Amino acid sequence: MNKYIYIKQKFNWVLERMVGDYRFYLAGFIIALFFLMAILGPYIAPHDPYKTDVRSRLEAPSLEHPAGTDSIGRDTLSRLIYAARPAFYVAFGGLFISIIIGMILGSVAAYSGGFLDNIIIFFFDVIRAFPPIILILVLVAIVGPSLQSLIIILGVTIMPRYGRVVRAETLSVKEEEYVSVAKSMGASTYKIISFHIIPNIFASVLVLAGMDVASMIMWEAGLSFLGLGVQPPKTSWGVMLQEGYQYIEKAPMMLIAPALAIILTMMGFSLLAESLRNALNPKSEKEES
């Protein structure tokens, strides 16, 4: 029980420090805006994003179409709103896979040591030996482009980052007194890792995840731009960039709108991660004072 009280107190302390940081509010506003777009897209989009109207193609922004229309008359704003959902699917789905697998393998490797540790580290090194872009392109070419395959591939590719961070943190935490006490009381390896080690290293993982959300969104957009992610006629910010690139002079909003969405979303998650990192760092309080 004391362990959970300590975690709750630490959470409240971190939240209090984040509330005093302007980056927390700015990041919260940006993330909430796009998160609501992803959830409420069908209800707030002014038009059907897949409905074509050739007579209204490449229109400039107007009251009826605030962001204009694309090359076949589809409403750009509606497509932008709908495209938020696959971006969040890929970002959070890929990170979920990376964090879960990375935390399991990293903590087991550090706590067990020996031959098992060497095998897991070798597995991490094999994945990290390839440049991420090359590995992702090869895997997508083998599996085939789709939203589901993109989530799995990005999750596996990024996973060694979390595995190594968790391993390094576990090597330090497993020598703490409370871990030794739990071990002497006969607690199983599963309980020690789940209830004593992971809660104390999760803060570092959370900061890394906040930064990687922005990277995941960029990966999704880039791969969809290349035709290896979300497939038309389904919409994503990368697909919109690819379509808008061809009409940059006639209808610049086709390119500007998704580019701004990507930039703002990445900035929001980066600010949130920076605010969290600052709140978790005891030295920052001394520096500010």
Distance between the termini: 34 Å
Specify Rg, calculated over alpha carbons: 22 Å
Distinct helical segment count: 11
Fraction in helix: over 70%
What would the average pLDDT be, to the nearest integer? 84
The shape is elongated
Low-confidence stretches: 285-289
Order of helices and strands: HHHHHHHHHHH
Total strand count, please? 0
Helix-strand makeup class: mainly alpha
Note the beta-strand portion.
under 5%
Q: Sketch the major β-sheet.
A: none
Description:
The protein is an all-alpha fold and 289 residues long. 76% of the residues lie in helices and 0% in strands. It has helices at 2-19, 22-44, 76-112, 114-128, 132-143, 147-173, 177-184, 189-225, 237-245, 253-280, 282-288. The longest helix is centred in the first third of the chain and has 37 residues, at 76-112. The chain starts with a helix and ends with a helix. The relative contact order is 0.14. The model is unreliable at 285-289 (pLDDT under 50).
Q: Short summary of the structure?
A:
The C terminus is likely disordered. Helix 7 crosses helix 8. It is built from eleven helices and no strands.
List the helices and strands and how they pair.
Blueprint: H1 2-19, H2 22-44, H3 76-112, H4 114-128, H5 132-143, H6 147-173, H7 177-184, H8 189-225, H9 237-245, H10 253-280, H11 282-288
Helix pairs in contact: 1-10, 2-3, 2-10, 3-4, 3-6, 3-8, 3-10, 4-6, 5-6, 6-8, 7-8, 8-9, 8-10, 9-10
